[in-house]
Amino acid sequence: MSKIEAIALAVEEGKSKIIAGLVEEALSEGISAGEILNNGMIKAMGVVGEKFKNNEIFVPEMLIAARAMKKGVEVLQPHLSASGVEPLGKVIIGTVVGDLHDIGKNLVAMMIEGAGFEVTDLGVDVPPEKFVEAIKDNPDVKIVALSSLLTTTMPALKETIDAIEKAGLREGIKIMVGGAPVSQEHADSIGADGYAPDAASAADLAKSLAI
Ligand code: B1M
Asked: According to the CATH classification, is domain 90-210 in 3.40.190.10?
């Protein structure tokens, strides 16, 4: 079994105790952080999601897989977000209200930080008013990044954009959205300024929106 396959299996099976060591070994063997993340860990979460959909596993198994993934991402973090460039501006990020998924959002935050932004992460289950408060507290914020992983929380993307608009804070701020059920079409329909399908393109999008 290759190191990448071993990492994927460790995530799938929720082996939190061994994942960090496996990721470190892979890095020291010269495998890139991007490959470990995409072909090992993210791929494994896809398998976990499929098994959940097919009732082969349930929420507790999904949770322990997520824990293992987080441990692995902790080891990768310095390799993913090393940038050394001047801050490009402030970004406020969070997963919208009702949604507890944070692995993808954390990766997006890491990549945006790595692209040179200063990132304030509001966490998960963030109500629109908390985004509004955070913008008020950071009047120089350039981008608000909203993550949604459930079809049931997609409406909260629009509710958050509407709340920012209603508070008179929309002008001068770019809003980007993403998450597995979100699409460019949906982003356009709710008045977002941009959509990205994954963490790497989210960083590129942030750079283009900040210009
Ligand atoms: Co949940 N869950 N979950 N879950 N979970 C999904 C999302 C699901 C697709 C599984 C399935 O059925 N196949 C399904 C959603 C179905 C739907 O809405 N269509 C689902 C469900 C149903 C649920 C519950 C309702 C289950 C239940 O309780 N019955 C429940 C909801 C809880 C809640 O949020 N209120 C629930 C709970 C959980 C756990 C807590 C157990 C756990 C989350 C732990 C955590 O995040 N800390 C969990 C997990 C782990 C998953 C899966 C297996 C993995 C999610 C993940 O981390 N993926 C997931 C199945 C799957 O994704 N295949 C599933 C890896 C991550 C890197 O990808 O998050 O997509 P992702 O992020 C990507 C892109 O989407 C994008 O970039 C990221 C990196 O490339 N992206 C952005 C994300 N945010 C972005 C923002 C951007 C741009 C790009 O700009 C701002």
From this structure: no
